[in-house]
Specification:
- The chain has seven helices and 18 strands.
- By secondary structure, it is of the alpha+beta class.
- Helix 6 links the parallel strand 13 (232-236) and strand 14.
- The protein starts with 18 loop residues before the first strand and ends with a strand.
- Bound molecules: pyridoxal-5'-phosphate (PLP) and 2-OXO-4-methylpentanoic acid.
- Residues 58, 222, 281-283 line the site of 2-OXO-4-methylpentanoic acid.
Length: 338
């Protein structure tokens, strides 16, 4: 612990003091339990292991100059986890219980919240698992909810530097009417092969197109997508993308700094018209896009030639970070102080 180099953290796992758990049995959630184990004892026929009954969330806590620890938009994550539960028939976790567990996990690991100056944060990972034995394809009767935390640096090692993305038409992460709008493990398993191909070719991530027609832009493997042109923030609307809380926040901040905001289908050809582009998410924050290579069509869309993020990305990034770290007043009620 004494040896953590806060400024050099990557987006990885580090053991902390404890995690928080609760269990759904006989139609009720238990009280929270604190565990210092990093392991689970699971039935070999648990539905999470065979049939993908698993959902997760990702949010962050930030230490301010004032020493206070702030959690960003926790309620939105609680609500999205509810929608994941509806999507794959898991137990509903009350919003208040989600919030209580997150707060407890952060409080008990408060010494792992990176210092303000490091620019790092404490990543909070809630997850829910179907735990009872089913060999037929049926929802579990019992569930486990866990919140663990781990200090993290940037998701893409370049941090707030533009990096390239690839379009690979041979792969989809979610079906047109499938589970793309909820945060379930299966979506990420489905993205691993394409992600690996992209990484090996030097791209940060895949930019997925809509899986039905490949005519519209969907999102990146681990983040939403936005483009900037004519003083407008444009982000895809689709039945197969995750409703990103960061993106929702950026739409507000974009309006605040005088941009127009459009959330609508974005045809692939429109990529040629953007002045700037970015990936956004809790882990990715804003990861500016330097270039998108459409590998099947042999086309490239270039947004940064000098290795620097564009001016709108910079403004949005600074504004978001300022609210998260408490440098700027929280006019939207997004922050919970721990
Ligand atoms: N899209 C996908 C597929 C993600 O996994 C994430 C990360 O949570 C996001 C978008 C960004 O969502 P948020 O801003 O809520 O973290
Ligand atoms: C997040 O941004 O919190 C995520 O869950 C993305 C994940 C793929 C690391």
């Amino acid at each position: 612990m004494e040896n953590i180099n806060w400024s050099d953290l990557t987006f990885g796992y580090m053991k902390t003091d404890c995690n928080v758990r609760c269990y759904y049995r006989d139609g009720k959630w238990s009280d929270l339990e604190i565990s210092d184990s990093e392991y689970l004892n699971l039935h070999i026929a648990a539905t999470c292991l065979h049939y993908g009954q698993e959902s997760f969330e990702g949010l962050k806590a930030f230490k301010g100059k004032d020493g206070k620890v702030r959690i960003f938009r926790m309620r939105e994550n609680a609500l999205r986890m509810l929608s994941s539960s509806h999507g794959i028939m898991m137990a509903e976790l009350p919003v208040e219980l989600f919030e209580k567990a997150v707060l407890e996990a952060v409080r008990r690991n408060i010494r792992f919240v990176p210092p303000y100056e490091s620019g790092a944060s404490l990543y909070i990972r809630p997850l829910m698992l179907g735990t009872s034995a089913q060999v037929g394809v049926n929802p579990s009767k019992e569930y486990t909810f866990i919140v663990f935390v781990t200090p993290v640096g940037p998701y893409f090692k370049e941090g707030f530097k533009p990096t390239p993305y690839a379009i690979l038409r041979g792969y989809d992460r979610a079906a047109p009417q499938g589970t793309g709008t909820i945060k379930v493990g299966g979506n990420y398993a489905a993205s691993l092969v394409a992600g690996d191909i992209a990484h090996k070719k030097g791209y940060s991530a895949v930019l997925y197109l809509d899986s039905k027609e490949k005519k519209f832009v969907d999102e990146c493997g681990p983040a939403n997508f936005f483009g900037i042109k004519n003083n407008t923030y444009i982000t895809p609307e689709s039945h197969s993308i995750l409703p990103s809380i960061t993106n929702k926040s950026l739409m507000e901040l974009a309006k605040e700094i005088g941009l127009k905001v459009e959330r609508r289908p974005v045809p692939v050809e429109e990529l040629a018209t953007f002045e700037e582009a970015g990936a956004c998410g809790t882990a990715a924050v804003i990861s500016p896009v330097s270039r998108i290579d459409d590998l099947d069509e042999n086309k490239s869309y270039v947004y940064s030639k000098d290795g620097q993020p564009g001016p709108v990305c910079v403004k949005l990034y600074n504004k978001l970070r300022a609210i998260q770290y408490g440098d700027e007043e929280d006019r939207y009620g997004w922050i919970t102080i721990v």
